Amino acid sequence: MRAFVKNGDVSDSRHLVKFCCFVAPNLATVLERSPDFPASMKRSLRPLFSLLVLAVIVTILSCRTAVRRSFGAFQLENGVSMKLALPVFNSTLLKNAAIDMGEAHVKQEVEQLLEGNFGSAARGRSISSWQRSHQFDIRSRPSSSRIPAQLRSPRYYRLWSEFRKVLRDWFRNKRYQPEIMSELIKQVKRPVDRHYGLADSDRPYASCAVVGNSGILLKAEYGEFIDSHEFVIRLNNARIEGFQRNVGSKTSISFVNSNILHLCARRNGCFCHPYGEKVPVIMYICQPVHFLDYTLCNSSHKAPLLVTDLRFDVLCARIVKYYSMKSFLDETGKSPEEWAPAHDGSLFHYSSGMQAVMLALGICDKVSMFGFGKSVQAKHHYHTNQKAELHLHDYEAEYAFYNDLIERPRVIPFLSDKFKVPPVAIYY
Ligand SMILES: *[C@@H]1O[C@H](CO)[C@@H](O)[C@H](O)[C@H]1NC(C)=O
Ligand SMILES: *[C@@H]1O[C@H](CO)[C@@H](O)[C@H](O)[C@H]1NC(C)=O
């Protein structure tokens, strides 16, 4: 099992150990060392003594169970439980990885949006592009107009209240709750299956391919192999035309970040479907204001347009930050405080590929990864001429995470011990 460390869990379980190891045995010792008791008194005390011993045993047993639950036992396939040396998580690292540096900023942004305050220039721009692309003719209105001034339009009013509702519902889930991994079937697989006319089932897909966008895809012809998976996830609308021999042609779901949808939302009918408009899209939200794009596009989208649960985002963020900090500290010998300036602190984010892999872990029995990793000979992306990686991601840290997924998933922090990581393979 994996260690499962919630906020404060480490110290809580330490208290528990203290209680079990010191209080309970002391009681037993006191009872044993009572030579002065007359024999008759000993006899008359015997039932009481037995009761006390029983109580002690029960206490010890229940403490053991509790300690085992927080520290770890390993459940073998055949149900035999045995203790294994568990990975030791560095609590400084766990604590620092759990800090969300952008939290205050996002909270403020959400609050402002809910109040109808689209203050900054950037937001103003996205509102006006939103209006332009959706036939709200801004030329006939004062150029400074913003949404709240136009609430008299019934269509605007409906979108506006929907926007506020989805934003509020989304933000309400902002917390660390690793059990979210077990909800992905319900949240993602079921709506996708319904859309494809498949029977409603809680069974994961037999096999999934997650297709990253690295140029290494051009070095092998995995197209047919990729298409042979039951479920194929592609990232950020990467083009497949002309690359089918390398990347395949089947797409079950398109996983994107909300910047992609934001760009598409400027086009008529949110048109942005390189895999066909029947392919469901799932995205994580980069900026809360992108719910405007979501609200608008969702109403005209022919396939499900899903937004990742914030609990899922929080989990992914913590895992990647943990790996990033760990390698930073190991390599530089610096302090955790120095990690943020080196990694764009509040802008730091996991990549779409990482979250797509996490999604696959939750909905598949077997996961194959393609197009992850880089090589000096290969292009950065198979389909673009982008030269370098974005600084706000730490791909090295993500590769270390994938490596653990494949070789020793137990050492991955923040996952719930109830969650069983399916077999993962990576193809170069
Ligand atoms: C945890 O990591 C920090 C930062 O690298 C280090 O200073 C500390 O000694 C580590 N603690 C343990 C118990 O290994
Ligand atoms: C998005 O659209 C679908 C289909 O029209 C609808 O069922 C769903 O409730 C919408 N989602 C939100 C959050 O409004």
Description of the molecule:
It is globular and about 60 Å long. It is built from 15 helices and nine strands. With 428 residues, the chain is an alpha/beta fold. It folds into three domains: 2-85, no CATH class; 91-101 and 174-427, sialyltransferase cstii, chain A (Alpha-Beta Complex), CATH 3.90.1480; 103-170, no CATH class. Strand 5, helix 10 and strand 6 form a beta-alpha-beta unit. 46% of the residues lie in helices and 8% in strands. Strands 7-6-5-4-3-8-9 form a seven-stranded parallel beta sheet, with helices on both faces. A two-stranded antiparallel ribbon has the order 1-2. Bound molecules: 2-acetamido-2-deoxy-beta-D-glucopyranose (2 copies).
Structural class: alpha/beta
In terms of DSSP E residues, the strand content is 5-15%
Measured as a percent range, the helix fraction is: 40-55%
Which strand order do you get reading across the main beta sheet? Answer: 7-6-5-4-3-8-9
CATH class of the largest domain: Alpha Beta
What is the CATH topology of the largest domain? sialyltransferase cstii, chain A
Largest sheet: number of strands, sense, barrel closure: 7 strands, parallel
**Helix and strand element order:** HHEEHHHHHEHEHEHEHEHHHEHE
Which regions have little confidence, pLDDT < 50, spanning 5+ residues?
Answer: 1-82, 121-126, 133-148
Cα-to-Cα separation, first versus last residue? 29 Å
The number of helical elements comes to 15
Number of domains: 3
Q: What is the CA-atom radius of gyration, in angstroms?
A: 27 Å
Q: Label the overall shape.
A: globular
The average pLDDT value, as a whole number, equals 77
Q: Please give the number of β-strands.
A: 9
Keywords: Glycoprotein, Glycosyltransferase, Golgi apparatus, Membrane, Signal-anchor, Transferase, Transmembrane, Transmembrane helix
Pfam families: Glyco_transf_29
Transmembrane segments: 48-67
Family: Belongs to the glycosyltransferase 29 family.
